[in-house]
Amino acid sequence: MAVKVGDIAPDFNLPAQNGATVSLKDFRGQKAVVLYFYPKDDTPGCTAESCAFRDQYEVFKDAGAEVIGVSGDSSESHQRFAAKYNLPFVLLSDKGDQVRKQYGATAAFGLFPGRVTYVIDQQGVVQYVFDSMLNFQGHVTEALKTLQTLSK
């Protein structure tokens, strides 16, 4: 079952590119989270999407949100990817795609890693889901629109 608007976002514990373990519950009551699942580090679409989040990162922070990227790549791969493109946010390693599957962030008949963004409010409730393999910029603009409506 895919996670949808109104659901409590499933918690997770995943390693970040800096070696720390990140849990979704760490943000509860503190800030909203923009959780984006992407297929693979350093590929054209994923680079475009991640750099679009990077370019608006301060706007996300000003809106009271943290951006977190998730893929099945290793923490070492994430470290190289983040350094190469100056990504200021956390990238989490979901080896075996367990969290991706838990969220239902798959594409093409569930066979390939999907490109899905979830906007999760401070209470841990999913407020928006954007699922598009090709509209990289849409993940950023739609997440920002949702955050702006939450803060009103």
From TrEMBL:
List the active site: 46 (cysteine sulfenic acid (-soh) intermediate)
A single Gene Ontology molecular function, please? thioredoxin peroxidase activity
Q: Which GO terms describe its cellular component?
A: cytoplasm; thylakoid
Functional note = Thiol-specific peroxidase that catalyzes the reduction of hydrogen peroxide and organic hydroperoxides to water and alcohols, respectively. Plays a role in cell protection against oxidative stress by detoxifying peroxides and as sensor of hydrogen peroxide-mediated signaling events.
Q: Which UniProt keywords are listed?
A: Antioxidant, Disulfide bond, Oxidoreductase, Peroxidase, Redox-active center, Thylakoid, Transit peptide
Query: What family does this chain come from, according to its entry?
Result: Belongs to the peroxiredoxin family. BCP/PrxQ subfamily.
Indicate where this protein is primarily found. Answer: other
Could you tell me which InterPro entries the record lists for this protein? AhpC/TSA, Peroxiredoxin_AhpC-typ, Peroxiredoxin_BCP/PrxQ, Thioredoxin-like_sf, Thioredoxin_domain
Spell out the protein name for this chain: thioredoxin-dependent peroxiredoxin
PROSITE patterns, alphabetically?
A: THIOREDOXIN_2
Q: What subcellular compartments does it reside in? A: Thylakoid
- Top enzyme category: oxidoreductase
